Amino acid sequence: MMMKMKLFSALMALSLAGMAQAATEGKDYQVLAKPIPQVQTDKVEVLEFFGYFCVHCYHLDPVLLKHSQSFAKDTYLRTEHVVWQPEMFGMARVAAAVNSSGLKYQANPAVFKAVYEQKINLADSATFKQWAAAQKGFDGKKLVAAYDSAANQAQARKMQGLTETYRIESTPMVIVGGKYEVLFNGDYQNGMRTIDELVAKVRSERGLK
């Protein structure tokens, strides 16, 4: 009898611990009033609206990039630069080039460092190209080619359209499955756990394996 009671107590403790760790609506996340369509509808999207000018994005970026490398094959990271005013369009072009070149994991840390630590005006086209060409940590020529591509400005305008259509008024904003916004509350590591739980929630809701 005593053994059964101990086993029951242990199971209850584990259950309560699991409940304590579960993401809570209103505390760890909130549901968007207007869902944002995913790019890939057959997977779970983790979407970040960010700005290279944003100090909170600067601190979140290495945490989120590292964590996204642990995502399952049915989950992917999408990043969109906000455009609140014309001066931000140049940085949206940089973000679009980073995305389309496939250099997000290599170039993003360097871009943040250039903008935030070195105070380099990468929104200026000539300055950006000169800076990119001098980089050793990634293929700068590939990044410049993406920046100069015919699609680049259209991609940046799409970022501007998303900012306006969905009224993105603060950064960083991370949205899972197009409808669950993560509330970081200043704790990015705990936010990664929330992302994982929301990914599992979306996966379950959609019947994904």
Automatic annotation (TrEMBL):
Signal peptide: 1-22
Pfam families given in the database record: DSBA
Compartment list: Periplasm
Gene3D superfamilies, alphabetized: Glutaredoxin
Disulfide bridge partners, by residue number: 54-57
Key word Transcription present: no
Coiled-coil regions, chain positions: none
Keyword Cell division: no
Protein name per the record: Thiol:disulfide interchange protein
The organism of origin for this protein: Neisseria weixii
